Amino acid sequence: MLRSDEPRIERMDPQDEVRSRGGVARVEALHRAGVSAHALRKAREAGGIITVRRGWVAVPDADRMLVAAARRGVVLSCVTLAERRGLWVLDAAEPHVAASPHSGHAKIARGTIHWRSPLFPRDPDRCEDSLENALVLIARCQPHEAALAVWESALRKGLVDAGILAGAPLPADARALLQAATPFADAGTETIFRTRLRWLNVQIVPQVWILGHAVDFLIGERLVVQIDGGHHVGAQRDSDIAHDALLRLHGYHVIRISYGQLMDHWPQVQSLILAAIAQRLHLAA
């Protein structure tokens, strides 16, 4: 038996346990893991742990977005979570969070709160939503082509299972995205390009391997479309130019467009594609 004058020995370091949970944690979860109230109090007094709000603590250098979510009683979700997972997102400048419809106390200084019950149960010990729930919110929150780009990015990276999503009672807008999404787009720009030309009665195939390199799109048999991103500089740009020349020597017609052209000058880009098709440049001689 421990005498009152003997020091208490704690078997679990509270700061390490909080860090293992992403730097922000519910006190209840820490207690379940074996962290005692005494250990938490000592860690607070030593400055190793700070109180975020009642029932939540964090390490001093914790992710500020997670701390803010815990403080406001919300979870990071929608495009904010997608961007944090490394998915292609058109615009995540403003934070998007989610809260239960019954959490009327939740408030944020700027951004969007999605007041919807989650399709997939949320872990009450986490400040981030599941990616599946985020995708469902994105389906309603974002324009179709931007939402489809995120869904395809998630499938491409293997971060969600299409079969599991298909078996869930998805809302109509989310189910339409699941049916339209493919795992082949390397970037959201490719999704947007393909979506904007889906009305064409011409075969458009993404990520085709031709003459030693993958091209973004092959329209018909001979029309190659390449979409440049920010990485098309230096050695990458030199390689692209060399491959373009090789494609032309083998009878392909190459149209290369920039991100700015795709997003800000689409009518001109579409006119260029249509003019090439009208000249039958997409067909083999």
From TrEMBL:
Protein name: DUF559 domain-containing protein
Signal peptide range in chain numbering: none
Region spans: Disordered: 1-20
Residues in AbiEi antitoxin N-terminal domain copies: 16-55
Boundaries of every DUF559 domain copy: 200-277
Name of a matching Pfam family: AbiEi_4
Organism listed in the record: Microbacterium bovistercoris
